[in-house]
What does this fold into?
Amino acid sequence: MITTHQPEHVVIVGAGIIGLGHAVAALDAGYRVTVLEQDHAAVLASVRNFGHVCASVQAGELGELAQESLPIWSGLAERAGVEARRSGTLAVARTEAEEAVLQELIAERAPEGARLLTGAEVSDQLRLDRSALRPVHLAGALLPSDVTADPRTAVARIAAWVAAHERGAVQFGTTVFGADHGAAHVTVATNQGDIVADRIVIAAGHLVGRLFPELAEQHAVRECVLQMTRVRAPHNMDFGPAVLTGTSMLRYGAFAGPAADALRAEMQKNRRDLIEIDANAMFTQQADGTLLVGDSHESHTSAPPFMREAWTELLLAEAAHVLGAPRLEVIERWQGIYATSSKQDILRATPAPGIDVVSLTTGVGMTVGLGLGARTVASWG
Ligand SMILES: Cc1cc2nc3c(=O)[nH]c(=O)nc-3n(C[C@H](O)[C@H](O)[C@H](O)COP(=O)(O)OP(=O)(O)OC[C@H]3O[C@@H](n4cnc5c(N)ncnc54)[C@H](O)[C@@H]3O)c2cc1C
It folds into this structure.
């Protein structure tokens, strides 16, 4: 790959998980790397999510990228002190149609190490007091290889690791206005002056259209806006698995099949409230015991800032039901935005030699972003 004494210089735009996935892979491959981030810390999608590296429930290319990402997360836990633990995922079934989806998953496409649980075993996983509760869980699937990362600190720690690397640098407060490919180099225009590089990766997330409006239009990029809360755990949960529910079974590729089609039809009849907000009712647990609970999905050309309390209440009620709690105490609320598209899951383009544009256009960047970076870098030969 590198033929001169001076390593090739790669500039990466965006210090979210996709940009940093590329930065880590490029450093590991021997390049010199400069990450440029417009904000003074990454504060967009990569810190607003559940931190759920839900590799077991992905399919197709996303499934491959997710599997490739898992060892990179473990490596970063060691090298960069990223808080990422092998929490596993627990998919819970509260209706027979949901139970059928889990049975089909395990019978036909079982993720590594996955097993079906009885309702009582689900209660045990969630540390529910069986004697005090009317049981709501019919069954569950435990998917042990998934990871939960702390989304609030993960990208900051990876960025710090890149900045501390002998060939790495991270410049916050640096807005990129454009990139021009010359005979031998790419010149990157920023508010801090021009930077010359051998290649550039644009990992601007849902803001890709600000730099490449035509590409964003061609790839039908829109903004998907989501509502999230952080709540106090209603009882001691022992730092448990990430929890998915029936709406999650309609969303992720590994669940897809006749049973999921039947579940969709049933939910369209019985749970129009959840279907209308395109819910993925789920939660993850953080090291301080709190739970990140979400989320709704709504697609816009420009996301409005107004959060709908009724939607948040509905998502909280779902989590409370799973946890056998009358209500959950909210500590924080926020909105997140990621890039979405009806055309593809990943926007990958090379508008000029040496310029790679990479935006994930579906909401699984924490799951696939590190593997995606490794693949782009490997493609440079
Ligand atoms: C509420 C929510 C929950 C989610 N939950 C999960 C989950 O549990 N698991 C999962 O796998 N995925 C999840 N996702 C999806 C995941 O968070 C995203 O796919 C991922 O963070 C996208 O990463 P990114 O680096 O492309 O974008 P971002 O994190 O948005 O980073 C892009 C960066 O580029 C910078 N930038 C943009 N333009 C410029 C410019 N011109 N100059 C300099 N800098 C620029 C921005 O400031 C930003 O920091 C969730 C998303 C949301 C919003």
Summary: The longest helix spans residues 60-80. The chain has a mean pLDDT of 96. Residues 350 and 356 are 5 Å apart (CA to CA). The radius of gyration is 21 Å.
